[in-house]
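Ticket 4471: requesting a sanity check on a complex prediction with MGD. Repro inputs:
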Amino acid sequence: MTGWQASACILCECNCGIIVEVSDRRLARIRGDKNHPASRGYTCNKALRLDHYQSNPHRLRAPLRRRADGTFEEIDWETAVSEIAGAFQRIAADHGGDKILYYGGGGQGNHLGGAYSGAFLKALGSHYRSNALAQEKTGEHWVDTQLYGNHTRGEFAHAEVSVFVGKNPWMSQSFPRARVVLNEIAKDPGRAMIVIDPVRTDTAKMADFHLQVGPGADAWCLAALAAVLVQENLCDEAFLADHVTGVDRVRAALADIDVADYAQRCGVEAELLRAAAHRIGGAASVAVFEDLGVQQSPNSTLCSYLNKMLWILTGSFAKRGGQHLHSTFAPLFRLGGVGRTPVTGAPVIGGLMPGNVIAEEISTDHPDRFRAMLVESSNPAHSLADSAAVGRALGELELLVVVDVAMTETARLAHYVLPAASQFEKVEATFFNLEFPENTFHLRHPLMEPLEGTLPEPEIWARLTRALGVVDDAELDPLRRAARQGRAEFGAAFFEALAANPNLGKVLPFVLYETLGPTLPDGLAGAAALWGLAHKVASTYPDAVRRAGHADGDALFDAVLSSRSGVTFTVHDYADDFALIAHPDGRIALEIPELLEDLRALADTPASRTTAEFPIVLSAGERRAFTANDIIRDPAWRARDRDGALRVSVEDAATLGLFDGGRAVITTAAGAAEATVEVSDAMRAGHASLPNGYGLDFLSADGTLDRPGVATNSLTSSRWRDPYAGTPWHKHVPARIEPALRAPEQAAPEPVREAQVAAGGPAGPPVGRS
Ligand SMILES: Nc1nc2c(c(=O)[nH]1)N[C@H]1C(S)=C(S)[C@@H](COP(=O)(O)OP(=O)(O)OC[C@H]3O[C@@H](n4cnc5c(=O)[nH]c(N)nc54)[C@H](O)[C@@H]3O)O[C@H]1N2
Ligand SMILES: Nc1nc2c(c(=O)[nH]1)N[C@H]1C(S)=C(S)[C@@H](COP(=O)(O)OP(=O)(O)OC[C@H]3O[C@@H](n4cnc5c(=O)[nH]c(N)nc54)[C@H](O)[C@@H]3O)O[C@H]1N2
Ligand code: SF4
Ligand SMILES: [Mo]
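Returned C-alpha cells:
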C-alpha cells in the first residue's frame, strides 16, 4: 500500500484525523486530515511523531508464556489460545467466573478490541471490570447520573464564557481543535475564558480570569462562585422553574456561604472571584470542562457537582455555546445503580470498580478474592496508584493474561502475553464520540498488514471464544449464508437466530464477527460488531441520524464502513438536549443530598492536607507537550523535557536549595524518587508537579535499559482516594522535596535517537497549530 491514507492520531481522546504516507511499514509522513468531520485538518505537535509508536522496538512479535524462572518463551498461537482458554475455564470452574477481573479494553485510540473481549468474558461468567475511567471519570459519572442521567460536554467553539476547572486544554486537548478554539476565544473581546488551576498553565496564560486556587481548594472556590450566582441574583429563574427540580435546597445551601471567607480559604482574591461569577452570570452561554485537576484531588465528587451548578443555575443548556447532553455510538459506562466490589465493598460505578482497590481485592485470603485477570490495552502495573502493591498483587494471581502491542510493566508480570497488531495495522475506532450538536464516528482502515506474529484483537477474541466451545459452529451457518445474500437477509436471520437461541445474545460481537465479518470488505471483519451498534444508534436517535444523512441503521453502518475520514452520525437540534435527559420528568434533578451535606461541611473543614513531614503538594502526573500516557515507550519521541522535570516554584526552590537542572529527591508516604528540577514561575509556592507517562522501561537497540523520568505511581498511595467513587488523588500527594545529595547525573547523549526522530517525523508544520 502506498500514497496518503486516512487514519487518526491515537494519543488522546480527540483522535484527530490524519493522513499518512507509509513507507517500509513506517509512518513516514503525517499530516492533519482536512476531511475529518471533527478535527478538519487540526493536529497538535504529538501526532507527527506517531511512528515512535508504530515502529517501537518493544513491539511484541509472538505469544509469550512465562517459565517457572520468570523468563518468557515464545509459543505458537494455537498453543497460546488453547492453554489460555483452558486456564480461564479452570478458574471459572474452581472458583466461579466472577473471580476473573478484566482491566482495560482500550486506550486513547482503540476500543474495538474491548467490544469483542466482552463476549469472551461473558461466556466465562466474568463481570467485574475496571479501566482508566475509574481513575478519573466515575465520580463525575455518578453525579451526572443523578442530575440528568447522561454525560455532558461543553460547546467551546461557540461558548461566550468557557470555564476550565483543573483542565489544561492547550496541553491536554480533549475537545476538537482545542488550540484553534482557545486562540479564537482569547482574541474575541466578546468572549471570555475562566481557568481554575493552581498552575499558571499555557491555558491560564490566555485566560481573562485565572483563579489560581491553592491545590485541593477547588471546592471552596466553586462553592463561592455558585454562591455569588445565588446571592447576587445571577441565576436564570425561568430556566430553573421550567427545567430543574430540587433547586430550593441547593439555593439554601449556597445562600449560607460566606463568599469572602471561602475566597480566602481557596487562595483567590474575593474581587476576582466575584468578577468571574458575574461574567458567568451575565453570559448568553457558558460551557464548563472539569478534568484531572479536580477529578484527582480531594473533594473530587463534590467539585464535579459544584462546577455543574455554574451552567445549570445560569440555564446554559439546550442552546448554542452551552453545555449539552450528547449521543454516543457505544456507551463508555454501563447503566444501572452502584454495585460493590466483593472484598472491600468499594463502589462499582457505571460498571467499573475503582482501580485503587484492585490490589486489595487480590492480595487477601478472602474467599471472594480475584484469582485471575485479563488486561487489554492498558498498563495497570504502571498507571494505578501504588505500583509496588499492584505489582505484588498481580504476582499473586493464579492467572494473568495481557494483550498489548509492547512488553509493558504489566506484561512482564503475566503468565501469558498476547501480541496485538498495532492500531495502524488493523481496523480500529474509538467510542470517544462526545460532541453535540454534531457527533462523529471514525472507522480507521488498516494502513498495512499486521506485523508478522501479531493478530488484531477481534481475531484474538474470536479464537479464544471459539476455544471455550460455548457456541456450536453449525448454529452459525444460517447466519453466514444470510450474510452472503445481503444486509436485509442477514438482519432477519440474525433476529430469528437470537430468538431461537438466547445464548447467542451473550456473545453477540463474536457471532457478528464469525458471520457478518467474513463478508465485509478487505481487512474490515473486525468492524462487524459495529453493525449492531449502528442499528442501536439509529433506533435511539432516529431523527438526528436521519438529519446526518443516514436513512437507517444499515445505511449508517455502510457509511461508517466506506468513509475513510469519519462520518457525522448524529445532527441534533439544540432542543434535543431536553429529550436526552434520562429522568422520566425530563428535568435536571439538582439536589444530591449527600453532596449538599458535604457542601455545608466545607465551612468547618480545613483545605490543606499537608503535614510537617510532607509539606508540599505534588501533582503526580501532569500532561505536557510530550506525554501520552504509556502509549509511546521510546524516549526519543520527546523533542524536549526528556527527563520529565519536577517543576517547583521560585519560592520553594529558594527555601529548599533547589536549582534549575539540579536533582531533587521526592519522598511521599508511599516511596521516594529522584528527578531533575525545573524552577518555574508558573507554580505556586507549596506546589510541585511531575509529568505522566514517564519512568517506562525502554530497551534500546543496543541493549541498554533506559528509564527516564519518574514513574509517578511509585509515589502514590491507593487509600488516598475519593470516598464516593474511589478515584485517586494523584494531583494532591503530600510530599517532601530535598536536593539530591549526589552530583547531578549527566544526561546521556543520544545521537541515534535523534536520527530516528528525523526519520519518523517531518511533515511540515502541524496543521492548526499556532
Ligand atoms: N499531552 C497530553 N495530552 C493528554 C494526555 C497525555 O498524556 N498527554 N492524556 C489524555 C488523558 S488520558 C487525559 S485524562 C487528559 C487529562 O487532561 P488534564 O486534566 O487537562 O491534564 P492534567 O495536566 O493531568 O491536569 C490538568 C490540570 O490540573 C491542574 N491541577 C493540579 N492540581 C489541581 C487542583 O488542586 N485544582 C485544580 N483546579 N487544578 C489542579 C494542573 O495544574 C493541570 O494544569 O489529557 C489527555 N490529553
Ligand atoms: N499518578 C498518575 N497516574 C495516572 C494518571 C495521572 O495523572 N497520574 N492518569 C490516569 C489516567 S487519566 C489514565 S487515562 C491512565 C492511563 O493508563 P492506562 O489505562 O494504563 O493506559 P495507557 O497508559 O494509555 O496504556 C495503553 C497501553 O495500550 C497499549 N496499546 C497501544 N495500542 C494497542 C493496541 O492496538 N492493542 C493493544 N492490545 N494494546 C495497545 C500500549 O502499549 C500501552 O501499554 O493513567 C492513569 N494513571
Ligand atoms: S489533539 Fe494531538 S494528541 Fe490528541 S488526537 Fe489530536 S493530534 Fe493526537
Ligand atoms: Mo485519562
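Notes from triage: Residues 746-770 have pLDDT under 50 and may be disordered. Leaving this open until the requester confirms.
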